[in-house]
């Protein structure tokens, strides 16, 4: 495989994801009476991603193809960490509305910290609790932003 094929594939994937995000953002209000609405950030994020995907495609077609470096793909441990991160993201997407922000993010944080090699119990639990229930408390009580409370425990 060459860098050209990799950039072509990556550019197409980024542009397809950006187009889906753009379509979803167009379903939300862009502005509200108070300022930017829920569609503002995803709209501009999708536009930036479309631009970056186009740059990747242009680079793929204009630069001469080169062979991938031998250490381009991660070793077995790196692939395992990538799979854990993807699993954590999938778990967060699936669990936020059912279990709520706090319990879901507690499990996600524990998964990520363990995958990254954190083994001491006190820092592991303190970071996971602060990143889940601590963030939930700050957002809901101090900032007035509602995070998913979940339907599992109601």
Number of strands: 2
Question: What structural category characterises the helix and strand content?
Answer: mainly alpha
pLDDT < 50 stretches: none
Over all CA atoms, what is the radius of gyration?
20 Å
- How many H/I helical runs? 5
End-to-end Cα distance, whole Å, is 52 Å
Cross-sheet strand order for the largest sheet: 1-2
The string of secondary-structure elements, in order, is HEEHHHH
**Approximate helicity band:** 55-70%
Identify the quaternary structure here: single chain
Description:
It is a single chain. The protein is mostly helical and 154 residues long. The chain is built from 5 helices and 2 strands. The chain has helices at 3-25, 40-62, 76-99, 101-115, 121-142; strands at 31-32, 35-36. Strands 1-2 form a two-stranded antiparallel sheet. Helix 1 (3-25) packs antiparallel against helix 2. The protein is flat and about 55 Å long. The termini are far apart. The mean pLDDT is 92.
Give the gist of this structure.
This protein has 154 residues and is an all-alpha fold.
Record keyword descriptors for this entry.
154 residues; mainly alpha; two-stranded antiparallel ribbon; 5 helices; 2 strands; 69% helix; 3% strand; flat
Topology record:
Layout: H1 3-25, E1 31-32, E2 35-36, H2 40-62, H3 76-99, H4 101-115, H5 121-142
Antiparallel strand pairs: 1-2
Helix pairs in contact: 1-2, 3-4, 4-5
